[in-house]
Amino acid sequence: MHYPLNTPLGRMGVQTLEEGPDRCVASIPVGGLLNPLTRVPTAAPLAMLVDHIGGLVNHYRRDDDEWTVSSELAIELTPHALELVTAAPGEPVVATARPFGPKGTGSLSLSELTHGGQLVGTATVRSFHIHAPGHVVAWPSGSTDGIPPAALEGRLSVEVAETGGQVAVLRQLPDPVINNSIGIVHGGVSAAALELVGSAALGDGTGAPWQTASLRVNYLRQFRGGNESRYEARALRTGRSSGVADAQAIGDDGAVALIARLTAYR
Protein backbone atom coordinates (compact mmCIF):
# COMPACT_ATOMS: atom_id res chain seq x y z
CA MET A 1 0.00 0.00 0.00
CA HIS A 2 1.31 3.42 -1.00
CA TYR A 3 0.24 6.31 1.22
CA PRO A 4 -0.47 9.82 -0.11
CA LEU A 5 1.94 12.64 0.70
CA ASN A 6 -0.64 14.38 2.89
CA THR A 7 -0.27 11.62 5.51
CA PRO A 8 2.66 11.02 7.90
CA LEU A 9 3.34 7.59 6.38
CA GLY A 10 3.36 8.98 2.85
CA ARG A 11 5.56 11.90 3.90
CA MET A 12 8.11 9.40 5.27
CA GLY A 13 7.89 7.09 2.27
CA VAL A 14 6.44 4.13 4.18
CA GLN A 15 4.86 1.32 2.14
CA THR A 16 2.78 -1.44 3.72
CA LEU A 17 3.48 -4.67 1.88
CA GLU A 18 1.31 -7.07 3.87
CA GLU A 19 -1.07 -6.75 6.80
CA GLY A 20 -3.17 -9.06 8.91
CA PRO A 21 -3.70 -10.18 12.51
CA ASP A 22 -0.74 -12.59 12.49
CA ARG A 23 1.82 -10.72 10.40
CA CYS A 24 2.36 -7.22 9.03
CA VAL A 25 5.19 -6.13 6.70
CA ALA A 26 6.25 -2.62 5.67
CA SER A 27 9.28 -0.77 4.30
CA ILE A 28 10.85 2.68 4.56
CA PRO A 29 13.69 4.43 2.68
CA VAL A 30 16.61 5.31 4.97
CA GLY A 31 19.71 5.67 2.80
CA GLY A 32 20.73 9.22 1.89
CA LEU A 33 18.88 10.87 4.79
CA LEU A 34 20.94 12.99 7.18
CA ASN A 35 20.47 14.13 10.77
CA PRO A 36 19.77 17.89 10.41
CA LEU A 37 21.76 18.57 13.59
CA THR A 38 24.95 16.72 12.63
CA ARG A 39 24.61 16.27 8.84
CA VAL A 40 25.63 12.62 9.10
CA PRO A 41 23.59 9.51 8.09
CA THR A 42 20.94 8.50 10.60
CA ALA A 43 18.86 5.50 11.63
CA ALA A 44 16.03 7.76 12.86
CA PRO A 45 13.50 6.79 10.12
CA LEU A 46 13.51 3.25 11.49
CA ALA A 47 11.56 4.54 14.50
CA MET A 48 8.78 5.60 12.12
CA LEU A 49 8.76 2.18 10.47
CA VAL A 50 8.71 0.33 13.80
CA ASP A 51 5.95 2.46 15.31
CA HIS A 52 3.80 1.94 12.21
CA ILE A 53 4.23 -1.78 11.68
CA GLY A 54 4.38 -2.78 15.35
CA GLY A 55 1.36 -0.64 16.11
CA LEU A 56 -0.51 -2.00 13.10
CA VAL A 57 -0.28 -5.63 14.16
CA ASN A 58 -1.39 -4.61 17.67
CA HIS A 59 -4.28 -2.65 16.13
CA TYR A 60 -5.58 -5.85 14.53
CA ARG A 61 -6.07 -7.27 18.04
CA ARG A 62 -8.51 -4.57 19.17
CA ASP A 63 -12.21 -5.16 19.81
CA ASP A 64 -14.83 -3.37 17.73
CA ASP A 65 -15.19 -0.54 20.27
CA GLU A 66 -11.45 -0.10 20.80
CA TRP A 67 -8.59 1.93 19.33
CA THR A 68 -4.86 1.63 19.96
CA VAL A 69 -2.15 4.15 20.84
CA SER A 70 1.56 3.50 21.33
CA SER A 71 2.78 3.44 24.93
CA GLU A 72 6.33 2.08 24.48
CA LEU A 73 8.73 1.55 21.59
CA ALA A 74 12.16 -0.10 21.67
CA ILE A 75 14.69 -0.70 18.89
CA GLU A 76 17.90 -2.75 19.01
CA LEU A 77 20.25 -2.46 16.01
CA THR A 78 23.14 -4.66 14.95
CA PRO A 79 26.62 -3.06 15.14
CA HIS A 80 26.86 -2.44 11.38
CA ALA A 81 23.20 -1.70 10.61
CA LEU A 82 23.73 1.87 9.41
CA GLU A 83 26.81 0.90 7.39
CA LEU A 84 24.76 -1.69 5.50
CA VAL A 85 21.97 0.79 4.84
CA THR A 86 24.25 3.57 3.61
CA ALA A 87 26.20 1.16 1.38
CA ALA A 88 23.02 0.46 -0.62
CA PRO A 89 20.90 3.62 -0.19
CA GLY A 90 18.37 2.61 -2.82
CA GLU A 91 17.35 -0.47 -0.84
CA PRO A 92 14.66 0.18 1.80
CA VAL A 93 14.62 -1.33 5.26
CA VAL A 94 11.83 -3.89 5.67
CA ALA A 95 10.11 -4.65 8.98
CA THR A 96 8.05 -7.76 9.71
CA ALA A 97 5.88 -7.57 12.83
CA ARG A 98 4.02 -10.27 14.70
CA PRO A 99 1.95 -10.28 17.90
CA PHE A 100 4.00 -11.29 20.92
CA GLY A 101 2.09 -12.89 23.77
CA PRO A 102 -1.62 -12.51 24.54
CA LYS A 103 -3.65 -9.34 24.23
CA GLY A 104 -3.66 -7.25 27.39
CA THR A 105 -4.13 -3.67 28.52
CA GLY A 106 -0.93 -3.03 26.61
CA SER A 107 -0.52 -5.52 23.77
CA LEU A 108 3.03 -6.25 22.59
CA SER A 109 4.41 -6.81 19.09
CA LEU A 110 7.84 -8.01 17.98
CA SER A 111 9.42 -6.84 14.72
CA GLU A 112 12.44 -7.98 12.71
CA LEU A 113 14.24 -5.40 10.55
CA THR A 114 16.12 -6.44 7.41
CA HIS A 115 18.01 -4.66 4.64
CA GLY A 116 18.70 -6.53 1.44
CA GLY A 117 17.82 -9.75 3.24
CA GLN A 118 20.30 -9.12 6.07
CA LEU A 119 19.10 -8.75 9.64
CA VAL A 120 19.82 -5.24 10.97
CA GLY A 121 17.66 -5.06 14.09
CA THR A 122 14.72 -6.08 16.22
CA ALA A 123 12.05 -3.95 17.84
CA THR A 124 9.03 -4.04 20.09
CA VAL A 125 5.96 -1.83 20.34
CA ARG A 126 3.49 -1.90 23.20
CA SER A 127 0.06 -0.43 22.47
CA PHE A 128 -2.69 0.58 24.86
CA HIS A 129 -6.22 -0.46 23.95
CA ILE A 130 -8.49 2.53 24.54
CA HIS A 131 -12.13 3.33 23.79
CA ALA A 132 -12.51 4.20 20.13
CA PRO A 133 -12.54 7.98 19.56
CA GLY A 134 -15.82 9.53 18.53
CA HIS A 135 -14.23 10.73 15.32
CA VAL A 136 -10.92 10.69 13.52
CA VAL A 137 -9.28 13.70 11.92
CA ALA A 138 -9.50 13.93 8.15
CA TRP A 139 -6.20 14.08 6.29
CA PRO A 140 -5.39 17.63 5.15
CA SER A 141 -6.13 18.55 1.56
CA GLY A 142 -3.25 19.16 -0.79
CA SER A 143 -0.79 17.16 -2.84
CA THR A 144 -1.34 13.42 -2.63
CA ASP A 145 1.23 12.27 -5.17
CA GLY A 146 4.82 12.96 -6.18
CA ILE A 147 7.80 12.31 -3.89
CA PRO A 148 8.44 13.19 -0.22
CA PRO A 149 10.66 16.18 0.70
CA ALA A 150 14.32 15.42 0.06
CA ALA A 151 15.59 16.38 3.53
CA LEU A 152 14.63 14.50 6.67
CA GLU A 153 13.77 17.72 8.52
CA GLY A 154 11.19 18.44 5.82
CA ARG A 155 9.66 15.00 6.16
CA LEU A 156 9.38 15.38 9.95
CA SER A 157 8.51 19.11 9.91
CA VAL A 158 11.27 19.98 12.38
CA GLU A 159 13.91 22.71 12.42
CA VAL A 160 17.19 23.05 14.23
CA ALA A 161 16.96 25.18 17.37
CA GLU A 162 20.22 24.42 19.13
CA THR A 163 23.17 22.11 18.91
CA GLY A 164 26.56 22.21 20.50
CA GLY A 165 28.27 20.85 23.55
CA GLN A 166 26.10 18.10 24.96
CA VAL A 167 22.69 19.65 24.24
CA ALA A 168 20.63 19.28 21.08
CA VAL A 169 17.21 20.80 20.32
CA LEU A 170 14.78 20.46 17.41
CA ARG A 171 11.55 22.44 17.14
CA GLN A 172 8.42 20.49 16.15
CA LEU A 173 6.59 22.76 13.73
CA PRO A 174 2.78 22.65 13.60
CA ASP A 175 1.93 20.67 10.48
CA PRO A 176 -1.27 18.63 10.08
CA VAL A 177 0.46 16.31 7.61
CA ILE A 178 2.59 14.72 10.36
CA ASN A 179 -0.38 14.21 12.71
CA ASN A 180 -2.08 10.86 13.21
CA SER A 181 -5.79 10.13 12.88
CA ILE A 182 -6.60 11.57 16.32
CA GLY A 183 -4.90 14.89 15.60
CA ILE A 184 -1.59 14.60 17.48
CA VAL A 185 1.98 14.18 16.20
CA HIS A 186 2.36 10.64 14.84
CA GLY A 187 4.23 8.47 17.34
CA GLY A 188 6.75 7.42 14.72
CA VAL A 189 7.54 11.04 13.83
CA SER A 190 8.20 11.98 17.45
CA ALA A 191 10.25 8.82 18.09
CA ALA A 192 12.40 9.55 15.03
CA ALA A 193 12.98 13.13 16.19
CA LEU A 194 14.00 11.88 19.64
CA GLU A 195 16.61 9.65 17.98
CA LEU A 196 17.95 12.67 16.08
CA VAL A 197 18.44 14.87 19.14
CA GLY A 198 19.69 11.96 21.24
CA SER A 199 22.42 11.01 18.78
CA ALA A 200 23.31 14.67 18.18
CA ALA A 201 23.74 15.30 21.91
CA LEU A 202 26.58 12.76 21.93
CA GLY A 203 28.66 14.70 19.41
CA ASP A 204 28.65 17.23 16.59
CA GLY A 205 29.65 14.84 13.82
CA THR A 206 33.39 15.41 14.09
CA GLY A 207 35.62 12.42 14.72
CA ALA A 208 34.41 8.85 14.53
CA PRO A 209 30.61 8.78 14.00
CA TRP A 210 28.27 7.37 16.62
CA GLN A 211 26.24 4.30 15.62
CA THR A 212 22.88 4.09 17.37
CA ALA A 213 22.57 0.71 19.08
CA SER A 214 19.31 1.08 20.99
CA LEU A 215 16.44 3.49 21.42
CA ARG A 216 13.67 3.17 23.98
CA VAL A 217 10.72 5.59 23.95
CA ASN A 218 7.88 6.04 26.46
CA TYR A 219 4.76 7.92 25.37
CA LEU A 220 3.44 9.81 28.40
CA ARG A 221 0.79 12.13 26.98
CA GLN A 222 -0.43 13.66 23.73
CA PHE A 223 2.10 15.76 21.82
CA ARG A 224 1.28 18.49 19.31
CA GLY A 225 3.45 20.73 17.19
CA GLY A 226 3.48 24.39 18.18
CA ASN A 227 5.52 27.54 18.71
CA GLU A 228 7.24 26.11 21.81
CA SER A 229 7.00 22.39 21.02
CA ARG A 230 10.43 20.83 20.87
CA TYR A 231 12.69 17.82 21.32
CA GLU A 232 15.63 18.18 23.69
CA ALA A 233 18.48 15.81 24.49
CA ARG A 234 21.49 15.84 26.79
CA ALA A 235 24.35 13.41 26.98
CA LEU A 236 24.56 11.35 30.15
CA ARG A 237 27.89 9.83 29.18
CA THR A 238 30.27 10.18 26.26
CA GLY A 239 33.15 7.77 26.56
CA ARG A 240 35.81 6.72 24.12
CA SER A 241 33.64 4.10 22.47
CA SER A 242 30.14 4.36 23.97
CA GLY A 243 27.63 7.06 24.78
CA VAL A 244 24.22 7.40 26.40
CA ALA A 245 21.76 10.29 26.00
CA ASP A 246 18.35 11.13 27.42
CA ALA A 247 15.78 12.93 25.26
CA GLN A 248 12.31 14.32 25.72
CA ALA A 249 9.50 15.89 23.72
CA ILE A 250 8.06 18.99 25.37
CA GLY A 251 4.75 20.53 24.36
CA ASP A 252 3.70 24.17 24.14
CA ASP A 253 2.48 23.95 27.73
CA GLY A 254 5.94 22.97 28.98
CA ALA A 255 4.83 19.45 29.91
CA VAL A 256 6.97 16.47 28.91
CA ALA A 257 5.02 14.28 26.48
CA LEU A 258 7.62 11.63 25.56
CA ILE A 259 10.90 10.48 27.03
CA ALA A 260 13.64 8.40 25.42
CA ARG A 261 17.04 6.90 26.13
CA LEU A 262 19.54 6.29 23.35
CA THR A 263 22.72 4.22 23.49
CA ALA A 264 25.36 4.46 20.78
CA TYR A 265 28.82 3.06 20.04
CA ARG A 266 31.73 3.91 17.79
UniProtKB/TrEMBL annotation:
This protein's record includes keyword Phosphoprotein: no
CDD domains listed in its UniProt record: PaaI_thioesterase
Superkingdom classification of source: Bacteria
GO molecular function: hydrolase activity
Documented EC number(s): 3.1.2.-
Domain Thioesterase: 183-255
DNA damage in keyword set: no
Keywords, alphabetical: Hydrolase
A Pfam family reported for this protein in Swiss-Prot or TrEMBL: 4HBT
Catalytic EC class: hydrolase
Protein name in UniProt: PaaI family thioesterase
Organism name: Mycolicibacterium septicum
